[in-house]
User: Fold this.
Amino acid sequence: MSVITIERKVLEKNDELARQNRALLERHGIFAINVVSSPGAGKTSLLERTLEHLAGKLAVAVIEGDVQTDFDAQRIAKYNVPAVQIVTAGGCHLEANLVHDALGNIDLPHISLLIIENVGNLVCPSNYDLGEAMKVVVASTTEGDDKPLKYPAMFRNSSVLIINKIDLLPYVNCSIETLRANALRINPSLAVFETSCTTGAGIPAWCDWLLARTAAGKI
Amino acid sequence: MHELSIAQSIVDIVLQHLPREEGVSVRSVRLTLGAMAGVVPDSLEFCFGAITEGTPLQGALLEIEHVPLRAHCNDCGGDTDIEPTLFACAACGSRSLTILSGREMQVRDIEVEENEGVR
Assistant:
């Protein structure tokens, strides 16, 4: 019997590919966000409203991650932006190698903002760096106000929280103040936006924030 | 359920470190796992058992060393273990924390056995 010392990170392969993605994106001056949430929080709707609002202002590309179907990429393609669909075929999260392959299908020199829509899941995607500049977590009012406490890793690892479906507040058991306080307890540095993809409330503020962080001049 | 892909990554790493000879089997794999690594240990053990069948790791014990979520408080200066759902300094209650540990997921070492008579 002998002991062999290994001392290697389990996700080192993913982390290395994420580093390569990040270097590639930075070389092209692309601001990349990794949008995460539970299923049905409204990631794709938020993307649609965002693309509408940014039309003519910013060159955007989208990577869509789903377990099955390319429905989301079809929805995004209507907005005349390059959209690459990744079907994980059962996988509960995107990994850096999938994003690496998808980047090969995007005309990077002409893009300034890359939005990666992760698979709907508040657990697994928090472990996998994709090479993004930051994670944006979407929590909808219909999910209640305790999600940040139940899934602290995701809220801790994100830089932005978007509280979506605020138009439904009168009908659901959710206090927006509690949701906000719970999220800031886990991560005091979160930037918080409140949106409704139905009424359009909050979308301009969110898009202005994106515009301020994205290099202009590619459109 | 990303535990399956994590189990696969562990197996890939271990196989890269195994001696080339025939008949070498892995008795145990020691893994450090942080409280905020986002991994369910039971489900990782289950997946590890399932995917190691028919490999030199078959029957190997996955020994998990748990690492608590620990943080340095930027207000009182103390280092304390943190409850992930509270996310506050255990000494003064401040939320201005710098995480020291709790996100680890690392293969430490393996115990291997050279089986007699295979050569």
